[in-house]
Amino acid sequence: MAAPSPERGPAERALLQARLARAEPGALGELIALLQAAEPRSLLGSGALGELAAALGELAAPPRREQDGAEPRGQDAALAAVAERAERVGAAFLLLLHKLEAAREQQQSPGVAAVGPGMRRVLGHAFVFAVTHKEQRAWSSARSREVAQELLERLVRAAGCGSVEEFLRGKDGGEDGGFGVVMALLKKELTK
User: Fold this and answer.
1) Distance from the CA of 116 to the CA of which of 29, 48, 51, 127 falls in 20 to 30 A?
2) Which three-class secondary structure string do you get for 10-22?
3) How crowded is the C-beta side of 48, counted as CA atoms within 13 Å?
4) For 120-141, how does the pLDDT look when each residue is reduced to its tens digit (9 = 90+)?
5) Cβ-count burial of 167 within 10 angstroms (0-12 exposed, 13-18 middle, 19+ buried)?
6) Do 106 and 40 meet the contact criterion of CB atoms below 8 Å apart?
7) Which stretch of DSSP H or E encloses residue 146?
8) pLDDT tens per residue across span 43-77
């Protein structure tokens, strides 16, 4: 099978996002191939980065809990599948952050934080994914936790921060931190 072209039009990108949202087989591999082939600068202007990050996060979301907050019973296979997808989704987030950091470094002086509107949306979804999968849970594996931890460290660096706390509150208290973005994402989940 030929590698997908990184120069896809808006309709093709929307179709790929829809396939990701429906967890179609092969969609995640196709996305990773597209990201690997993509010129970093081409990603910066994409208004679809937030939607893409949201689709990635949904793809590795753990199963919903019961009304009483208990884990659903008899879902061992489903939980193992979430852990496996989380490894690949985490790898896709890492690749996306790497490309966005490379694009920002091409535009700016080295050492300047790679945070802009597109990056901020990606970082929020990546943060929720990372904290969801970095601890030992029924839906995680040793490898998915390792990838989630690596992603958390990378996104903190990409934001130009030295810690998760600094990422959430913002540098020197003067900049907008990630807390508002993360809370907005979580609020959507809590009101479902």
Assistant:
1) 29
2) HHHHHHHHHHHHC
3) 16
4) 778 999 999 999 999 999 889 9
5) buried
6) yes
7) helix 142-158
8) 766 667 888 888 899 888 888 765 555 666 667 88
